[in-house]
Amino acid sequence: MTRVAVVGDALVDVVDGRGVPGGAALNVAVGLARLGVDVDLVAMVADDEPGRLLVAHAAAHGVRLAATPAPLGTATATATRDGDTMRYVFNEAGVRRHVDVTHLLPLLDAADLVVVSCMALDDQEQAEPLLRIADPERRLVLDPNPRPGYLPTAEHVVRFREAVERLASRARLTKVGDEDAELVWGTEPHAVASRLLVRGAGTVLVTEGPEGATAHTRTGSLHAPIHAMDEPIVDTIGAGDATIATVAAALADLDARGRDVGDEEWSGILVDAMAIAAHTCRVAGGMLQLPSR
């Protein structure tokens, strides 16, 4: 079975007063497990009520959790709806999240792929060890997933942007959302994709919500629209996480079968990712939802 390690945030989303296991990295890890992948998750989780909820959720879906120290407790995020987008307010543990992978590099290097999702990359102590992941051009998938609550000042934004660009220059794939591009680069995502490709990025996956997704490679670009559905959107929590989980699972599967990832493969990957993202938006919370067959 393909093995993927996910590194990043795990937290409890408080939606309409109800605690829901979430956080980008946890969503990606559970999504990968639902897609049949063997998954390790490295995340900051404390032995408190929210932490125990996350531990139980990960275990229920077959995700092995390597919890890093959480002296401020487990992160929580209160979500409110703003049109079709969710806005978040984080507790102190969330704002000051810290995941240092230095001592877990052997675990990451044993995986077929490593997915980094929603890390505090503005902190050099957390970003620098990621540069030491083995064979990143083949194995590293990066989803910076910035949020305004995590980047309170212009200085934080600059440090975050610089770290993303250093990591992307070595990564196999980097995901950039439309809101990410505006927050971190002050421009639209396709311009960011061009910038990252010039700096050495392998592939840049641009996601634009209802406009779908585009894979920019060094030889061209492929686009897939979001999958059309009659059912109303419940929330958009986890749509981007479902997308990156679907893409990572597909890349790992193609690798395992010794297949190159050309235009035909990318077209299929994007169509599947947009269908899964659309279905995820029809259910509350961030868990990846599989289309009915």
UniProtKB/TrEMBL annotation:
InterPro entries from the UniProt entry: PfkB_Carbo_kinase (IPR050306), PfkB_dom (IPR011611), Ribokinase-like (IPR029056)
Coiled-coil features, chain-numbered ranges: none
UniProt keyword terms in alphabetical order: Kinase, Transferase
One Pfam family hit: PfkB
Keyword GTP-binding annotated: no
Chain ranges of the Carbohydrate kinase PfkB domain: 14-291
SUPFAM superfamilies: Ribokinase-like (SSF53613)
Gene3D superfamilies linked: 3.40.1190.20
Similarity remark: Belongs to the carbohydrate kinase PfkB family.
Protein name as catalogued: Carbohydrate kinase PfkB domain-containing protein
